[in-house]
Amino acid sequence: MPATDRPRILVCRPVPGEALDRLRTIAEVEVWPGPRPAPRPELLRLVAGRSGLLVVGDRVDEELLDAAGPGLRGIAQFGVGYDNVDVAACTRRGIPAGNTPDVLSGTTAEIAWALMLAAARRITEAERYLRAGRWATGGFGDLMGVDVGGATLGIVGMGRIGQEVARRALGFRMTVLYHQRRRLDPALERELNATFVPFPDLLARSDFVTIHAPATPETRRLMDAQAFAQTKPGAILVNTSRGTLVDQEALLAALDAGRIRAAALDVTDPEPLPADHPLVGRDDVIVIPHIGSATHATRARMTELCVRNLEAALRGERMPTVIDPGVYDRPAGAGGSAG
Ligand code: DGY
User: Fold this and answer.
1) Residue 55 pLDDT more than 80?
2) Which of 25, 114, 264, 280 has a Cα-to-Cα distance from 335 of 20 to 30 A?
3) Same domain, 179 and 241
4) CB–CB of 67/48 below 8 Å?
């Protein structure tokens, strides 16, 4: 195929793994060099005339779809969360959008566990203590933490990642409570040793609350002042989902009041979080820069899945992990307009 007739794909950030090479055999692939996302005006210019987009949290809305034009055939979001994508707008235009579920569940569960253990045993604080030369001078009772083994874990959002968190809790002999809209199949509840409870009960009983629900209008500021007031005194909050699920002002107030012991966050609102933000620099808060899926193997699997989604879109086939399957139910010829 002459180069000019080939589909044109924009990849909005350098992504790891070799799958992009496969995409290059069927399409012209341009990669925004990063490391920061393209500024919005630049992105709107770059998407024009593309057949496919691989986005990494970049906002996909009517404006961007208009800028891309009628030739856009598919969008691959590098991540399981897709709150950055206006999926309804894509569907209205007949453009399938896919995400990367499953391939990152264990890896993201492990970052939640890393945060939970680090907050319980004050690992980051202990390392700062040592680096400051305080090991030689500090008191024997410094850096006391709390036990994880045998404690009660509350999982908010028992999807794939929440379930992987629960699986790992079996080894720590924890009591596992969970809450989400729909109760799990009883056989799966038994396998995970997890008990479905109303949200206020989960808050009142859990020593650790870990958030794995998606970012939606319903979950926005789920952990607000009222929720913190219901939380078991001394609990630890872990969030690896999206920063918008936590009211950060209310979190700071709950920490200052001693209502909760600590928070450990992989996600914040906004991202990146400025280094002078009040959440940064506190001994009772661990903040890391959204690295939930950041292992070599997992990120390569995510690239592979994005490429498979784009390959399918270019061939007019069903994306393996399309977000809204309804996009394929639309009458022929319904695509291509914002209507
Ligand atoms: C996801 O998959 O949504 C993660 O947040 C990306 O790292």
Assistant:
1) yes
2) 25
3) yes
4) yes
What pLDDT sits at residue 337?
A: 35
305: CATH: 3.40.50.720
Please confirm, yes or no, whether 242 is among the known catalytic residues.
yes
Helix, strand, or coil here: 235?
strand
In angstroms, the CA 242 to CA 80 distance is: 11
- What pLDDT, on a 0 to 100 scale, did the predictor assign at position 272? 96
| Same domain (yes/no): 219, 270 | yes
For residues 87-112, give the mean pLDDT.
Answer: 98
pLDDT(332) > 70: no
Residues across the chain? 339
Task: Name the residue at shortest CA distance from atom 2 of ligand 1.
Answer: 79
Of 265, 288, 293, the one to substitute when testing ligand 1's pocket (max ligand atoms within 8 A of C-beta) is 293
pLDDT of res. 4: 63
Q: Which position has the token pair 């009458």?
A: 331
The finding on whether 57 has its CB within 6 A of some atom of ligand 1 is: no
Answer yes or no: is 335 within a domain. Answer: no
Do 136 and 188 belong to one domain? yes
Give the total number of structural domains in the chain.
Answer: 2
- Asked, for residue 336, whether it belongs to a domain, the answer is no
Which of the 8 DSSP states describes residue 14? -
Q: Is the pTM of this model over 0.70?
A: yes
218 and 136, same domain (yes or no): yes
The token duo for 302 is 């995510």
Cβ neighbours for 183, distance < 8 A, ≥ 6 positions apart: 189, 196
What are the tens digits of pLDDT across the range 302-313? 999 999 999 999
Nearest CA to ligand 1 atom 1: 79
Question: Does the C-beta of 81 come closer than 6 Å to ligand 1?
Answer: yes
Q: Is residue 196 part of a domain?
A: yes
